[in-house]
Write a structure and sequence with these properties.
The chain has 266 residues and is α/β, with parallel strands linked by helices. The protein is built from seven helices and twelve strands. Helices cover 25% and strands 20% of the residues.
Amino acid sequence: MGAGPAGRSVVRHEGWRVTVHFIGAGPGAADLITLRAAALLGASEVCIYAGTYLDQAILAHCPDGVELVDSQHLNLDDQIAVMVRAHAQGQQVARLCSGDPSIYSAIAEQTRRLDAAGVPWDVCPGVPAYAAAAAIVGRELTVPEVAQSVVLTRVQRDSTKMPSTEALENFAATRATLVLHLAIRRTRELAERLTPFYGADCPVVVVSRASQPEELVLRGTLADIGAQVEAAGLTQAAVILVGEALRAEEFVESHLYSSRRAPGDS
């Protein structure tokens, strides 16, 4: 074990004998998970997964006889009860999280309860949905002298409040590349709020269910993306990318591989 934030004990990976493994399931495709994730799934006896977001093909990594639990039908207490019961029975639990567990995965409240119950856990990273979206459209989100920062954020709808310092306009003022999660139902409103900062012709890409059979990509601008999303009937499982990096063709080359670099430059 190692000392975690605020003195909390964090169980480190040791011989795969941690009870609960929070696993980044990636954007959905069964082959967009890590080798470690596949091994953990293959050794699991209980698999809790988010059926709303994950492609069922990912579950093929689990062994025959695994207990499959769809978390979309359970509240937090129900999910923890499954994990505590599995721990008492000496079973290995794979808790699949869409994308990467480090953002919008709700593992904070789950691990806090597991700590209180004395159930050891660890985290296996995954491919985040925004990275899959950028790959699909073939774009780097940090283009030299156009945008060198990426802001990952969400908006409030039927969810917990956003911190008062994290207003969308505060981020937009930087003109960084924006990645909006959990925001697809408010696309038109958000586009209107962003237009004064980025301009109506700023490129926008919406990727729904990236890497899954139902994948849909919409390309537009802040002026028309709201209408496109509404016409497509998108209501969940989509990320919105906003920023000039999405179309930049004229830009300076990075010093990383530039011939302008002098020997010894860092």
